[in-house]
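Consider the subject:
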Amino acid sequence: MLIEIVEQIDLTAAFRHLRSSGAGGIDIFVGTVRNQANGRKVAKLEFEAYVPMALKEMRAIAERASALWQLEEVIVLHVTGVKEVGEPVVLTGASAPHREAAFEACRFLIDELKKTVPIWKKEYYQDGSIWVNAHP
């Protein structure tokens, strides 16, 4: 299990972490900075986290996924700092003996992360900026 708050997401390293001789399926979700939100052009995003609580919650989510599905490996990564359009900002992944478990666990990981982990996003537009989630 790899759970981290990082400056950059290394996609190749994430895949290497999930590889296992017992895995018949690996599923990885990568969330990136898109160029628009709510009809406005996004220039960049900024992420902040309450790191101790974020890591604790991310680990709990990964442990729940491991209890629900037979998994070989799990990874949950999220960035902090300023990120440009196209950059990866969140990665969840699971490897399992069968693809269905990997797919289901990966979706569970990202859905639960978005609901419960204390990470905040500020969107920067050409004409201003806003915190999308409540800021601490």
Residues 24 and 58 are 25 Å apart (CA to CA). The mean pLDDT is 95. The longest strand covers residues 40-49.
